[in-house]
Amino acid sequence: MSGAGKLKPSSLVVSAGRPRDRGQALNAPLVPASNFILGDEPVYSREDGTATWAAFEDAVGALEHGRAISFSSGMAAVAAVFEQVPAGGRVVLPDDCYQGVVRLALEGEQKARWRVTRLPTEDTPAWVAAAGEADLLWLETPSNPQLILADLDAIAAVPRRQGALLAVDNTFATPLNQRPLERGADISLHSATKYLGGHSDLLAGVVAVGDDELYGRLFAARQCNGATPGTLEAWLSLRGMRTLAVRLERAQANAARIAAFLEGHPDVVDTRYPGLESHPQHELARRQLDGYGAIVSFVLADATAADRLCESVRLIHHATSLGSVESTLERRGVHAGQGHLPPGLIRLSVGIEDADDLCADLAQALSTT
Ligand SMILES: *Cc1c(COP(=O)(O)O)cnc(C)c1O
């Protein structure tokens, strides 16, 4: 699209990936196809993709300033990246990280596929020291669920060994708040299930890369493993993305209000939100993010109090996952592999409801703990 490079992200998110020719529908077509008439590409959708996937990929690629490949879920995208690690290679993973990624990494280590080192997300010198020796540096920033930041500029500046990859799980920030490829990462990855889709009604994943050779390898991984997105899921992911900028703007404004409310509440032991001045990395957040996101994590006295709050909310839903229009919360310690968390830690994904109503709901739920 002409002039697309000059557009701001909130324009790109609306315009990228749209048909441009006269007489075409404004929206990319929903193409439910496995195969095509022979004689030209595409031939078979697992091998060549479809116009529906391509439209979603074009939009993500435009936002991330790279080329994107869509997958059946965020974890399918993660698996395609991990597959790039050479046999016996070294994977470096943050202490605070999406539990599915931790599981995939540790199971691969058990099968002697690779070796795993864990580092604290915020320990930049440790990441800098590891960067020269790793085959895959996996960063998640802000992290799930503790909202810790990794210093992307500092870590990406370290020369990596030949073929080594720096991957950033950009799910929490979205491409509107953070573009890792611009900061020197090789891969930016999303669970499109979350903010891109934005309505808790699909599973999808996507990776964006700057390098053509890496693009080819990840595309080949999808061809081989068959972790292709569903047609409707890819279409809905793009449909969801069209409103990402306004959804995020509202959700972030709500999150800032709620974080301030929680920080001032006597029953809340700790409130974690990158936009709070009390966040230990607030300065880095200001430098690295274009917005502070819409996840707020907070800690109650113990697991019992947290469980009671989760059972008492009326507007907010007691449910896992995040990034949707409706607010959801859960106590994260209930999940396997999350033993490092304070038992009373609750992750709240702030939606686009009215901020007064959300604060009132939290106030009444806190009064039951
Ligand atoms: C949900 C999530 C994933 C996994 O995505 P799925 O679509 O559930 O497979 C990966 N990373 C982060 C940060 C997530 O929140």
From TrEMBL:
One of its GO terms (biological process) is transsulfuration. Residues 1-20 are annotated as: Disordered. Transmembrane segments: none annotated. Its cofactor is pyridoxal 5'-phosphate. One of its GO terms (molecular function) is cystathionine gamma-synthase activity. GO terms for cellular component: cytoplasm. Keywords: Pyridoxal phosphate, Transferase. The modification N6-(pyridoxal phosphate)lysine is found at K194. Signal peptide: none annotated. It comes from the Bacteria. PANTHER family: CYSTATHIONINE GAMMA-LYASE, TRANS-SULFURATION ENZYME FAMILY MEMBER. Belongs to the trans-sulfuration enzymes family. This is PLP-dependent transferase. It comes from Marinihelvus fidelis.
